[in-house]
Specification:
Elements (H helix, E strand, L loop, with lengths): L2 H16 L8 E5 L3 H7 L6 H21 L3 E8 L7 H20 L3 E5 L7 H14 L6 E8 L1 H18 L4 H7 L2 H5 L12 E4 L18 E4 L9 H13 L7
Parallel strand pairs: 1-2, 1-5, 2-4, 3-4, 5-6
Helix pairs in contact: 1-9, 2-3, 3-4, 4-5
């Protein structure tokens, strides 16, 4: 271990020692941004190399979350808009997502797909469905794998599901209007039954959510980090938790 690594290890321990269990977010959402730019910065022309490097980082993130007491992690791997990328870029990315999902199952994580699976190719959708089925019985950390995800699409799907549910019971639109509230919609989101994210992290220096968890993030705290996702370190994650713990959360104001 070099001197720099030793210094970072000591710094990590100091950060972790100062974190109170009461201040750890229950649900952390992560926009893993910057894989392509990382590859270009490294002089690599094949951007799929950046996506593979970023995929390898996910398991590390989940370990950090489990070690610190986080209960739910949502990792945004692919937006619904990204499905419009050129075929020569999209197909390798989908293969990487399939591979990392299967790897996470093999490592013992509990996987829950989050997104519009009907927009995905059958092969990718089946991998995600099988991952959920194979790991749903596992206790501990819930890992939401957001693939084909878009915040607006999620809300539209929730409303559609809500209407279908009431129609199946023979209720009219007028009946639904009389009782409809935010909780009814929340019960039909992709993340139904889970706590809303307390902390949302985005890497690569971009300071926007790009539609990530639009409904659930109403009271979330945001943390933006300059590093590209493949370069995101445990010390950076601990700094995000420290920053979150230092904030005074104001719900609704």
């Amino acid at each position: 271990m070099g001197l720099r690594d030793l210094v970072y290890r000591l710094y990590e321990r100091r950060l972790e020692a100062k974190l109170s269990k009461d201040s750890i977010p229950r649900h952390v959402g992560v926009i893993i941004d910057g894989n392509r730019r990382w590859a270009r910065a490294m002089g690599i022309s094949d951007v799929s190399t950046g996506h593979r490097k970023g995929a390898d980082k996910i398991s590390e993130l989940l370990t950090w979350c489990r070690e610190t007491g986080v209960e739910v992690v949502t990792v945004w791997m692919l937006s619904s808009d990204n499905l419009n990328r050129p075929r020569e870029e999209l197909e390798p990315l989908l293969r990487i997502i399939e591979d990392v999902t299967q790897e996470l199952v093999a490592e013992g994580w509990r996987i829950s797909p989050v997104g519009a699976l009907d927009l995905l190719p059958d092969r990718t959708a089946n991998v995600l469905k099988n991952a959920k089925e194979a790991s749903s019985h596992r206790p501990g950390l819930i890992v939401n794998v957001a693939v084909g995800y878009g915040g607006r699409r999620e809300i539209a799907d929730a409303v559609r599901s809500l209407l279908q549910e009431h129609a199946s019971k023979g209720a009219s639109i007028e009946d639904l209007v009389e009782v409809l509230d935010v909780e009814h919609i929340a019960e039909h989101l992709y993340t139904r039954g889970q706590p809303d994210p307390d902390l949302l992290i985005r890497t690569s220096g971009e300071q926007r959510l790009s539609g990530f968890m639009l409904w659930q993030s109403a009271h979330s705290e945001f943390y933006f980090h300059e590093a590209y996702w493949p370069d995101f370190r445990r010390v950076d994650f601990l700094r995000a938790l420290r920053d979150y713990a230092a904030r005074h959360r104001r719900y609704g104001s």
